[in-house]
Every structure is written in structure tokens, then in C-alpha cells.
Amino acid sequence: MRSFVNHNLLAKSVISLLLLIVFTTSSSSVLAGGGEPGAKFDPGKMITDHITDAHDWHLWGEGHESVSIPLPVIVYSSRGLDVFMSSSFHHGHDVHNGYALIDKKLVAVVQESGNAEEATIDEAVTASLWDFSITKNVVSLFVSVLVLLYIFLSVAKAYKSRPGQAPRGLQGLIEPLVVFVRDDVAKSSIGEKKYQKFLPFLLTAFFFIWLNNLLGLVPIFPGGANLTGSISVTLTLAAITFVLVLVNGNKHYWHHILAMPGVPGWVLVLLTPIEILGIFLRPFVLMIRLFANITAGHIIALSFFSLIFIFGEMSTGAGFGVSVLSIAFTVFMTCLELLVAFLQAYVFTLLSAIYIGAAVEEPHHDHH
Amino acid sequence: MELVKPAFGLVFWMLVSFSIIVFLLKKFAWPVILGSLNEREKSIADALNAAQKAKEEMANLKADNEKLLAEARNQRDLILKEARDAKESIINEARAKATEEADRLTRLSREQINNEKMAAITELKNQVASLSIEIAEKVIRQQLSSDDKQKQLVQDLLKDVKMN
User: Fold this and answer.
1) Among the four residues A31, A190, B73, B95, which has the most C-beta atoms within 10 Å?
2) A103 touches chain B (CB under 8 A)
3) Structurally, how many domains does chain B consist of?
């Protein structure tokens, strides 16, 4: 029964992978096919547009013909709170209520200007501007939160309604991962005694990162946002780990940071600043690693597609010829990214657990 | 460079959303899931232990049974041997007794026969004696009818006595 479910799941995931590839290719071709005639394909801009955040959810088309889902803009500045839909900007061409999108960034402009291209930026107001907009990444964030809530509340319900029985369906998918995070990440890094306190954070972080890594691989709405490849998100996650280390670090930990026992005084002059730097460096590396891995994956997949259009501009035949190769490479890359999605979630959780483990470790009597 | 610059709005929403989801899952999902997992693991471990114990008990029981069986077999052998011995001894005894009895009977009968024989002989002797006496009397009466003959006899008898 179990293996049947797994096979079923595998088949489903293979199908969704194929669909994913089909959709990726189709959406990309529409993207490059449309737009102003004669406009040259700019792979750098296309890739940047895909991996950065946006105030609307672009679906297809370019310039004035592009179709996108408008998202709420919530902005607070010295002019007060302002809430409106991003469609008011008309894909970044118009000014609305004294705000405009310049290079995809929300800025305040001098009130009189009606066109974003000619508007003058109001520096004073822009400096005081807080952009709380529900951007593409924020929507993706909300979607992932809802998905996570749905998954884990239903799994929890399954555990409640069928106590002591073998897992079934979604439960069977989640359970080995929960056990994996509990035993191989939390228990082994933090230790038998204290791991339970940090388990909710570690489990949530693991599944949050993994789910969003996977959603990032899905090219159609509501996937495709580069959430875990966004520095803001990885910064927040790393900051939580950082705060957990600071709050839970015990005397033993701080003693080792500030004055490593058994080290002569003159070495401490060198060592202590390095250790203090290390406290900040570890979460910083956590932040960069996740961001860079996921963003790089997106860039590589998009680069292969760009090849099609670069060659397609030379001649249609070359474009079709290269597309075979590009798709083959993208399939390969996507498979690799499926692995990376899991791996990065695991690495982030594991390293967080190790940092926390070091902070709460009890002194051993046998060393030094 | 826009790529590596954290956006305040996203950090804000991320912090809020992540806090909410950690809170909700911590309250409603993780304790249930982890608790059930622990419980199940414990029950599985218990079941395994119980199975192991049962196995050991079975082995013990089997060993006990075997021991009992061996004991019973020994007992049986012993009883059989005893019975055989008893039989043998009874037979031997009976035989000995029978022989003895037979001997005794033989002896008795021999004695009796002897006695009877003796009695018969004695009686015969007696009868022969009395017959002899009667005959002798008759002969003597006949022979001693005259004094000469009586004298002759006494003479002869005396002669015999001297010879003795």
C-alpha cells in the first residue's frame, strides 16, 4: 500500500515536472514573441525581471500589451498612508497619487508630473517612504503560508483521527521528512535535551524553504516568484536564527566567544574579535547561501531559454534547433533544482540547528 | 544591485507571515504530529520488546518442556527398568520357591515313603518274626517232643554259645 502511494506520487511529480517544462517553454515563447516589433531581445533584462520582485504579477506579453495581475500598493510616507492597485501605474508608465515605479522601484514624484518617464523624483518624500506593498513575492509568501497551513493542519488532523496507525496519503509524505528533521537535524545538532524547544522553528523553516524553493520552480501563477532567492526573505530567516542564538546562548557559549578558555592572553586579542565577527558571519553566510543558490538556479534555467531567442533572432531555424538543446538542458537543470530545493532547505535548517546547538551546549567536563 | 538590497516591505511581510505560521503550527500542528510520532514510536518499541520477551519466554518454555520431557522419559525408563527387575526378581523368587517346595515335597514324600517302607519292613519283620516264632514253635514242638531231642538241642546251643 505504501509503495503504491509512493509510486503514484512519483508518477504525479513526473507529470507535473513535464507540465512545468511545457508551461515554461510556452510562457517564454509568448514573452519573447510579443512586444514591440523590432525590439531586440535583452536576456539580461528578461532574467532580472524574472528573479526580482515586482508590484504586479506579470503573466505574458511585453510593454503596453503585457498582461499582469494587479497587486495592492500600500505606501506610507510623509504624505500619509496610500493604498491603491498597481494597475494604476499602467505597467510603470503612469504616475498615480504622486507615486511612480522607476526601474521597478516605488518612488515619490513631484505631484504635477503625469508620465513616469518624465517625472521628477521628490527626494525628501522618497526618503521617508515605507513600501508595504503586497508585491509578487509577498503574494507568493501568503500563498505558501496558506499551503503550509493547509498541509500541516490536515496532517495534524490525520494524526488525531487515526492515532497509532500507519501514515496515509499526505501524512506519509510529510512524516519521513518530519522524522528526518527531528532526528538528523535537530536531535543530532542540538542534543537530546534541548532540541524540542527549537524543533517548531526548524521544522517550519525547513518546510517553508522547501515549499518556496519548489514553488519557485513552477513557472505559472502562483508559482514562479523567486521568494527564497530574495535577499529580504533569506535575511529574515537568518535573522531569526541569529536572534535565537543570541537569546539562547548560555554562559558557556559566551565564555568561549569572549575568552576562549585555555588560550593565552595575547592570542585572545586576535581570537576574540574573530569569534565576535563569527557570530554575525554565520547568519550572514546562511542568508547568502540560500539566496545565491536559488537565484543562480533561476538564472541558469532562464539563460538556457534565452539562448533560444538569441539564436532565434539570427534565424528562425537556429532558434528551433537550439530550443531542442535548451529544453534538454532545462529539463536537466530543473531536475537538479528539485534536488537543490531540498538540499538548500536541509542545509539552512541543519546549519541553523548547529549554530543553535553550539549556543546551548552544556560544558563538557572532559575537555580543556 | 537591486537584487542584493533587502526590501523593507518584503522583510516586514516575511517577518509577520513567518511568525504567524510558526505560531500557528507550533500551537496546532507540531505538538500533534510530534506527539503522535513519539507515541507510535514508543508503542512500536514496546511491541518489539514484548515480542522479544514473548520469544524468550517461548524459548524458556520450550527448554522447560524439553527438560520435562526428558525427565519423563527418564522416569519412564526407570520405571520400566524397575518393573523389569521386579518381574525378574519375582520370577526368580517364584522359581526358587517352587524349586524349594518341590524339593521339600520330594524330601517329604521320600521320607514318607521311607517311613512307610520302614513301617512296612518292620511290620513285615514283625510278621516274619511272629510267623517264624509260630513256625519255630511248631517245629520246636515237633522236635522237642522227646527228651533226647531237647537235650540234644541244649547241647548244641551251648556249643554255639561257647563258640561265641
Assistant:
1) A190
2) yes
3) 1
